[in-house]
Amino acid sequence: MHFALIKASDLVLVNEFGEPQMSTKHKVNTAGFIIHSAIHKARPDINAACHMHSPHGRAWSTFGKPIEMLNQGISTVQTLMYFMNTNRVPDSCMFYENLSVYEGFGGVVLAKEEGQHISNALGEIGMNLILQNHG
Predict the structure, then answer these.
(1) Which residue did the predictor score with more confidence, 85 or 102?
(2) Domains of the chain, with CATH numbers?
(3) pTM score, two decimals?
(4) Per-residue b/e over 54-87, b at no fewer than 16 CB within 10 Å?
């Protein structure tokens, strides 16, 4: 579902085992749950995690490196939550010392260990993460 179409009623509240806590017509995405639950467990300071596959993010991820702080103009990677809160496109400076790269990503996440690896790559203070060759 496109982000612009998502409503609160489309979200699924789950427990720590990925079991829905309310009646829902939606299914829980296993890979998404493994990644997001690992992040929330390791980083209780993060209230929400957004996983996206933007065309710019996927293209940049092939380089396997963070975004450099080159300008204060429009960045090639847009942070959805920033845009929704400010209605502005962020510049690359907002990612300075706040973007990690997970170089070992191997595809669809179906093992808890991979969720832990992704969470570890985010680190203790990072707020943005690129999965190399994924986005």
Answers:
(1) 102
(2) 3-131 (3.40.225.10)
(3) 0.74
(4) beebbebbeeeebbeeeeeeebebebeeeeeeee
